[in-house]
Amino acid sequence: MSELKTDKISPRTASGTITLGDSGDTFTVPSGVTLTNNGTATGFSEPAYAANASASTGAVNVDASDNLQFDSGYGSTATAYGCRAWVNFNGQGTVAIYDSGNVSSITDNTTGDYTVNFTNAMPDTNYSVVIECRKQSGGNAGTSCYDQTFVTNSVRILTFQHYNQSAMDFAQVMVSVIR
Known about the structure:
This protein is mainly β. The chain is built from no helices and 11 strands. It has strands at residues 60-62, 68-70, 78-79, 83-90, 96-101, 103-110, 113-118, 128-134, 143-151, 154-161, 172-178. β6 and β7 (113-118) form a beta hairpin.
């Protein structure tokens, strides 16, 4: 077996490309070795973590079931549950999305009744929805919101005035979907 030891490898041409090995070759990185990427790594067909990785205290890791785990100062490493969709929209007049993530559109069904349509469907209907509403001015003025219908490609929400439980359109409706 041959061994090559060097401190630096630089490309010979202006393209800046260095190729190590041929298609099908395997490179083994020993335990304890750290690979540092100071640029952009491309061409990986598999995630760049060990298939049987496990999180350790104070680390960010992905476990064998592809769950992101980290300790963000809470004293233990645990699985993170992310916001799968969110939207901040104007529910008065013509509905308009201020900003969003994984939300393709809002359907205005009637006063205080909206459907939040997801760009990418949820894996099931076992998600949680958090809603907050605000009037145009003066804060949230006793508003109350609740979810009505969960399906994988959307969630239907209703917004009400808290003091008299009548449906109301709000200047700002904020929805987060956690799964």
